[in-house]
Structures
1.
Amino acid sequence: MKKTIAMMSCAALFTAAAYAAEAQTGFVEQTQFGKITVTTSSTLPPQAGNSYAPGKLMDGDVRTAWVEGAPGDGIGEWIRVAYESPMRINRIYFANGYGKTEKSYRENGRIKGAEISTEAGSFTKTLSDVKGEQTIELPKAMAGKKTRWIKLTIKSVYPGTKYKDTAFAEFRPDLEENNYE
Ligand SMILES: [Ca+2]
C-alpha cells in the first residue's frame, strides 16, 4: 500500500520534471520518507519522442531508462540519489539497460562495473547483463548505516551493438525495510 502511494506521487511529479531538466540534474519526488532528489552527471536529450530523463530511474518501469549523455560509453558518469534526512539502506533494486525491447536493450550499452558509494563507504560490483529487475545487496560495512545520499558511478560497460549510449532502467534504493519510525 505504501509503495503504491509512493509510485503515484512519483508519476504525478514525473511529467513536470521530465520536461524541465533533461540535462544536468533531474528529478524530485515527495515520498513518505521525505523529498528524494535524483541527480545525474549528464543525460541524453530526448529522441524520437522518448525521454531519457533521471526520473526514468524511479518510475518502476524496466522499459524506460535514464541514458547518459557524455561522449563515448559513459565511463565515469554517475547517478546520485539524495535524501532529506539520513536513510538506512540494505539493498538497491535496479534494472540494467534500455529495456523497451530486446533490440533496444542490445543496441544500447549496459552498466558492467558499478561503484556504489554512500556516507558509510564504497564498493564495486559487477552487474549482470540481464534485462529485468535485479538486486544489489550492500556489504556489511555499509548496510543499514545512515546516509544522506547514495551514488552509482559507471566504471565499465557492456557496449551497445549500435549506440555508444549507456542506459540504466531502474535505480531504487530500498527505503521500506528499515526506515519506518
Ligand atoms: Ca524506468
Note: The beta strands are 25-31, 34-40, 66-67, 78-88, 91-96, 110-118, 121-126, 133-137, 146-158, 167-173.
2.
Amino acid sequence: MASLVAALLVILMLNGLEPAMSQPYPNYHADFVDIDQAKNEPKWWQTGAFYQIYPRSFKDSNGDGIGDLNGIADRLPYLKELGITATWLSPIFTSPMADFGYDIANFTEIAPIFGSMSDFENLLKIAKQLNIKIILDFVPNHSSDECEWFKRSAARDPEYKDFYVWHPGKMVNGVHQPPSNWVSVFHGSAWQWHEGRKEYYLHQFVKKQPDLNYRNPKVREAMKNVLRFWLAKGVAGFRIDAVPHVFEIAPDAAGQYRDEPRNNGNNDPDDYGYLQHIYTVDQPETINLVYEWRAVLDEFKDGDERILLAETYSPIDIVMQYYGNATAEGAQLPFNFRLISDISNNSNAESYEWTILQWLQHMPKGRTANWVLGNHDQPRVGSRLGTDRIDMLNMLTTTLPGASVTYQGEELGMTNVWISWKDTVDPSACNTNPNVYEHYSRDPERTPFQWSDDIDAGFSNASKTWLPIGPSYKLINLEKERKEPLSHFNIFKQLMQLRKETKTLQVGETEVKAVNRNVLGVKRFRQHDFTYVTLLNIFDGTETVNLKDSFADLTTDMEVVLVTDKSQRKAGDFINSENLQLLPKESLILRSTSTYYTYYSNGEHRQLPIEGVYLLVAQVVLYLSYRRVLTLNSVC
Ligand SMILES: [Ca+2]
Ligand SMILES: [Ca+2]
C-alpha cells in the first residue's frame, strides 16, 4: 500500500509540474533553432550537411585533366548517397585562372573549362531532382584584371572610372612609390602601377585581382545584380569569399591612405604578417554590406529560403555580427573556423570544450551554429589533426548543434599530397621560392578526388591531371571504402543518416564538457526523447570515465549507436555510464535507454528517466490487478 501511495504521489507531483516544462533550460542556447513555424521543423539549412566541391578536382568528364560541371552532375548521386543537403562550388565563372577562378573576368558567365551555361542549368535540374541544393561562390572583393569593368576603368570610361581603388601614389625623388605600405595577402605590395591609367590600383590578393571600390554605389548595385542573376536561375545561395577584405578605409581629407602599423617580430616587408591590417580588413561598412546582400536574397520569396555562408577568420566578436543584429538579418551561417584555427594536434579535451563553447556562448540568441573541418585553403583535417582522428572529428561536427561543413575528400580520409616545386601551381606558393613554398602552398589539399584505384584514381583519363593524384589512392578511394563497414566513408554516411533521423541531434539542447583532460563529451537532450552522448578519447591512453560525474540525468545503461574502427564495441552493445573504459582514440555515440520526463528542482529544470515513471506505474497496475483478483476470489 505504501508503494501505491508513493507512486500516486510521484505521478501527481509530475503532473503538477507540467506547466514548468515550457520554461527554458538553464543552458547555452535553449532556442538555437528558430523553427520554421509553417512546417514546425527546423529550416532546411539549420541542420544541413554542407559539402564543398572544388570543381577542378572533383570529376573530369572530358579527359582534359580538369574537373568540370558535367563531372559534378555525373556524381551528384554520390552526394545523395552520402546524405548531403547542399553543396557549395568554388568559382566556376569565366576567369584567366590566375587564382584558380577566384579572379573572375565575368561574374555571370561559366568558364569554358568547366562547361557551358546549359551544363550549369542541367546540373541545377539534376540537383533539384535529387533534392540537393547548389550554392555558388560569390567573390565580391575583386574581379580579374581581364574583367571588362577593369579594362574600362583603366581607360577612365566615365561609367567605370571609379569601379576600382585607384591612386596616383607618391612621387619620391622623381620615382613613383605606392600610396601606402599595404601588403598583399599573396606577398609583396598591395599596389600595382598601371601603365595605361598612370595610377596605382589596389589588389589585396594577386595583382591580377584588382579590388573593387565598394565606396562607389554603382559597384554595390552591379554586384547585387550578380547575386540576382544566379538566384533567378535557382541557386540556393552563396558562400561569400574573403568577406573581411571587401572594404578598405576611405582616403583621408588629403586623399591619402594611411600606412598600417608594423607587427613586431616579422622583418619581411613583403610578408602579409609584416603589418597589422587595421585599415584593410574588418572595416565596419563590410558588416552592413553583408546585411544588404541578405536583403537581396530575401527578395526571392519563391521556394525554400536562400542562404549566405560568409568566409571570415575575424575575431569572434566581429564574426558574430555577420549573423545580423536587432534590425537586420545577415548571413545565416558565418563560417565557424574555430576547429581549424584554435585546435591543434596537441589540443586536449579542455581546449576542445573551450573552442566549441567560444562559438556557442558568443552566438546571438536564435542563431544557428556551424562547424567547418576543412576547405580548399587549409591543410586537410587528417594531416592537421591526425588520420586516426578523422572519424571522431566527423562524429563531433555531426552531433554538435547546427550545420556541418565538409570539404570534398575528407569523408574518405584524403590527406595532404606533397607537391614538388615544379608541379606547384598555387599563386600563393609560386609568388615565393623553392625553399619556403610549402609553407604557403594550398595545392596539397586540392588534389583530385580519389574515386577508385583506376587510372587517375577514377577522376579523369588524362595522361596528366592539373595537380598530381595523391599516391595513396590505391588505399584511400571511394570504391574500396564502400566495401569496408568501418571505413571513413561508411562512418560519415552513418553519421549523416543518424542526424537526419534523430530529432534530439537536430533540435535538442547541448552540453559540451571535458569529461577529463583527454575525453570530450557532448550531450544532446530533448524533452520526452532519448539523450545522446558523443565521446571522444582524443589521445593514445586508455581512459576510464564515469559520465554521471559530468552529465546529469543519464541512464546507467546506455546503448552504443555508432562506433569507429578504434572501438572493439559494436552498435547495439550496452555500456555502463558510471564505469566506461575507452580505448586509445576510441569515439562513440551513446543513447540513453529511456526517454525523459522533466521536473523542476532547486531553480533548475531537471530530467527523470521515464523508465522510473514506468516502473512506478507498473507497480500500481500490478497492485490494482492483485486487489481485483483478491476481490473476485472472495466473491466466489
Ligand atoms: Ca574537364
Ligand atoms: Ca577590398
Note: Residues 60-62, 64, 66, 68 surround calcium ion (ligand 1) (CB under 6 Å).
